[in-house]
Amino acid sequence: MPAPPPSVGIKEAFREAIRTKSGLAGGIMLAALIAMVVIVPIMAPYSIVKRWGDGQQWLDNPRYAAPVWSEWFTSKELPESAIFEPNDFRKIRINTTQFNLTFVSLRRSFTYTADVFPSELAMWAWATYGTGSTPSVIVTWIRPDGQEVEILNEGPQVRAPTPNTYPFSSTGQMSRSAQAIYNWALSFNATSLAPANSTTPWLYVKPEVTLFAVAGESMLDFRRAEVLKGEYAIRVELLGFTPEDDLDAKFIVYGTIFGLAGTDNTRRDLLIGLLWGAPVALAFGVIASFVIVVIQAVLGAISGWYGGWMDEILQRMADFLLIIPLLPILIIIALFYEVGIVQILAVLIVLGFVGSTTKVIRSLVLQIREEQYIEAALSYGAGRVRILFKHIMPRIMPYTFALIALSVPAYIFLEASLSFLGLGDPVLPTWGSLIGNAYSDGALFHGYWWWIVMPAGGILFATVAFSLLGYAFDKVLNPRLREE
Amino acid sequence: MYATVIIANLGGRIDEYLKDQIRFDLNQRLRNDPAYRALSPENQTKVFNTRYNASLNARGLNEPFFQRTIRYTLEALTLQLGRAAKLTDTSGSPEVYDIIGERLPRTILLFTTASILSAAAGIWLGLVMARKSLSYFDRGMTVFSISTYVVPPWVYGIFFILVFAYSIRIFPPGGWVGVPAPPPGSLAYYGDILYHLLLPLMTVTLASFGQWSYTTRNLVMQIMDEDFVTAARARGLPERTVLYRYVLRAASPPIVTSLALTMIASWTGAIITETVFNWPGLGQLFWLAITQTDPPVIIGLTAIYAVLLVITVFILDLVYGLLDPRVKALRRG
Fold first, then answer.
1. Closest to A471 (Cβ–Cβ): which among B146, B215, B275?
2. Whether ipTM exceeds 0.85
3. Domain spans in chain B, listed from the N-terminal domain onward
4. Which residues of A touch B298 (CB under 8 A)?
5. CATH topology for B96-332?
6. CB contact under 8 A, B143 and A335
7. Nearest 5 degrees, angle CA B301-CA B306-CA B308?
8. Nearest-by-CA chain B residue for A483
C-alpha cells in the first residue's frame, strides 16, 4: 500500500516552491518575461506587428544588419545607416526668365568614419514636371579626395507624389549607374572582378564599395578595397523646362548594424519580432498547457473516482492519444488548411483531452479514495459529485499546477517547431518562425548569427524559467509524482 | 490504423487534390498533342473525359471515399504498401518498401545509436546523481537535465551547425555523404558517413540524455528507500553491490520499457532534426511525403511503425518475466 500523497494547499505549495533556489530563479525569470509582455504593446504596438510581412514598412532599414552591440566584439567601427530625408538636403531652386528653365540643386554632405563599407546605397526622388519635355535628374557623388562621379543622369519615370526609386546597389536594375562607376574606376586602372570574357563587367561592381574605396587598383574588389574616410557629399540636380518643375530626394547609405537585434533578409527589425515572440510563446504555451492539463486532470479524477466502464473508456482513449504521433498530425493539418495560432491550439486541445496527466491524476485519486475523510464524507451522505469536487479536486490541484508548469515548455516548442516549418501563424512573428526564416534563408551559412541566436535564446530562456518552476513544485510535492 | 488512413488522406481532401492534378497533367499533355488539337471541341472533351476516367480507374480514385479508406486500411494492415504517388528511392523505384528500406538504415544509424549513447550516459549519470543526492552536483545536473530534455533536438542542431560547421568549421553542416561522395563501399565512403554522422549524433544525444538521467535518478532514489535495500545495507554489503545488484535490478523494468519504446520511436526518426541536418532518413521522408502529398508513403510509414510497436510490446512482456521475479510468480499462480 503506497503512502497517500501529501496534502498541500495551492498557496502553501507556491510559497514553498518560491522559497527554493530554483523556484526563486524560475520565478524571477518568469517575472522578467511577463514584464516584457507588458512592455511590448507599448514599445511596438500591434499596428506595426500586423504589417510584419509587409515589405514596404521596413525600407529604411539595412538588410542583414547585425545588432549595434556586435561592434563591441570587433576592433572595427561599423557603420549605422545614414538616412537623408528631403529636409536634410540644402536646396537651391532657380528659375530663368529667359527660357523658362528651372534649375534645382540639392546637396548634402556627410562624414564617413567607419572601417567597413556600407551595405547598400539607394535613393528616392520626387520630381514635379510639366507635360512637355522630361527634365533630367543628375546625381553626382563627391568624395573626400576631390573626385566627382556622375552616378545618375536620366529623366524621372513618374511624377510626384510617387517617388522614383534608384536602388544603386542592384547593378542589374541600375546598370547605367554601374557602368558609370565602372568606367570611372577603370580610370584608376582598377582590376575588375568580372570574368575576362564578360560583356557586362559592370554588373560585378559594388557601388557601395567602389564609391567609398580609396582610389586605385583595388577599388573594384570588395575583398581588398580600403575605406576612404572623410567628408562625402551627394549632389542631386534637376534641369526642368517649366517654372513649376521641382525635385526632392531621399538618400540612404545603409549601414551594417541596426538596433538592438539587427535585421533580416527583408530588412525587418528583429527586435520587434523578438519582443512579440514572448507574448505569443507565453500565451500559447500557458493556455495550451493550462487547458489541456486541467481537462486531463478532471477526467483523470473522474476516471479514478467513478471507476468502471467510464474508467475503462477514458484510459483506453488516453492510451490511444498517447501513442499517436502529435507533430506529424499537426503538420498535416497545418499544411492543408489555412490555420492560425488559435486553430492550432484548438486541435491540440482536441487531441490532448486525455493523456499522461489523466494517468498520473487517476493513480493519485485511487490512493486518495481510500482515505478516511472520504469514507467519512460518504458516511454522512455526501453525493459522489460533491465529494469529487469538494474533497478530491482540492487535493490534486497542487499537482495539477506542477504539471502545468512542467508542460508549458513542451507546448512552446511545439508551436516553435510548427513555425519553424513555416506552418505557424501567418501574421504574427514568433520565435520559431524567426528561426525558420533564418534557416531557410541560409543564415547559418552566411553567419547571420543574431538572426538565430536571439530567438533561440528567447525560447531557451522561457523553457528554463518554466522548468525551474516546475522542478521547484516537483520537489515540494513529489515524491511519487513522476513515477508513471 | 483506420484513423491514420483518414488523416493521411485528410478526409478526402487529398483525393480532390490528386484529381485536380491528374486533370492538369492530362490537359498539359493533350494540349501539346497535334492530333488532339486537330479534333473538334466535342471530340476533344470526349477524348479528355475517357482518358481522365481511365487515369482515375488506374489509381482507384473513382470508388466512393469510404470504400477506398477501407481498402487502404486492409492493405496497410496486411503490409501491402504499394507504390508511392510521387516519391522514389535513389534508383527510381516507386515501391514504398524500397523507399522506406533505403532510408530506414540511415535513421537507425543516427537515432538508434544516439538513443543507446544517451541512455547509457543518462542512466550512469542518474545513478551518480542518486548516490550523491542533494549535493550541488546533483542539483545542478537535475536542473540541467530538466532544461535540456524539453528542448527539441533541432534547436541544438541549429546552434551546433552555426558553431561547429560554420564558425569553427570542423564538421560538415549536413547531408549523409560529402559531394562528390567517395566511391560507395570503399573505406573512405564509410569514413565520410561517420564524419557526417558525428554532429547530428552529438545533437540528438545531448537532447535526450537529460530525460534518462532525471528519471533514473528519481527511480533509483525511490528504490533506495525501500526495505530490501536497507536490509542489504544492514548485511554490510558494499554500496556498489547494493546499487548495481539490488537497486538497479529493481529499477530495470521501467528502464527497459522506456528504452524499448525509445528505440521504436527512434526508428521513425525526427522530422525537423533530419530536415535541419539534411539527413536522408525516415523523418525527412515523412516531411517530403507530407509536403508532396504522397498518402501511400505516409500510410506505409505509419503501418511499419505500428507493426514495430506491436512486436516491441510483445518482446517487452517476455523480457519482464526475466527481469522481474514477481511477474513470473504471477504467471505461475
1. B146
2. no
3. 2-77, 96-332
4. 328, 332
5. MetI-like fold (1.10.3720)
6. no
7. 95
8. B219
If you average pLDDT over residues A359-387, what whole number do you get? 87
The lowest-confidence range among A215-219, A320-324, A386-390 is A320-324
What pLDDT, on the 0 to 100 scale, is given for residue B62? Answer: 63
Q: B159 and A410 in contact by Cβ < 8 A?
A: no
Count how many pairs of residues, chain A against chain B, have C-beta atoms within 8 Å. 94
pLDDT tens readout for residues A381-419 = 888 888 888 888 888 888 888 888 888 888 888 888 888
CA distance B162 to chain A (A): 5
Q: What type of residue is A67?
A: P
**Chain A closest CA to B185's CA: distance in Å?**
30
Mean pLDDT on A130-150: 88
- Residue A122 has a pLDDT of 92
The whole-angstrom distance between residue B297's C-alpha and the CA centroid of its chain comes to 14
User: Which range (A236-250, B190-204, B225-239, B263-277) has the least confidence?
Assistant: B263-277
More confident residue, B89 or A482: B89
Residue with cell 487547458: A291
Report DSSP letters for A224-250, one per residue. Answer: T--B--EEEEEEEEEEESSTT-EEEEE
Q: Write down the mean pLDDT value for chain B.
A: 78
Q: C-alpha grid cell for residue B72? A: 487502404
The C-alpha of A307 sits at a distance from chain B's nearest C-alpha, in angstroms, of 24
A426-443: average pLDDT = 86
- Residue in chain A nearest B291 by alpha carbon: A335
Hey, what amino acid is at A199? Answer: T
Candidates B6, B134, B146: best to mutate against A (most CBs of A within 10 A) is: B146
Which of B150, B162, B271 lies nearest to residue A467, judging by beta carbons?
A: B150
Q: What domains can be seen in chain A, in order of their start residue? A: 10-56+269-481 (1.10.3720), 69-254 (no CATH)
How many angstroms separate the Cα of B199 from the Cα of each of B144, B174, B181, B190, B203? 21, 8, 18, 15, 6
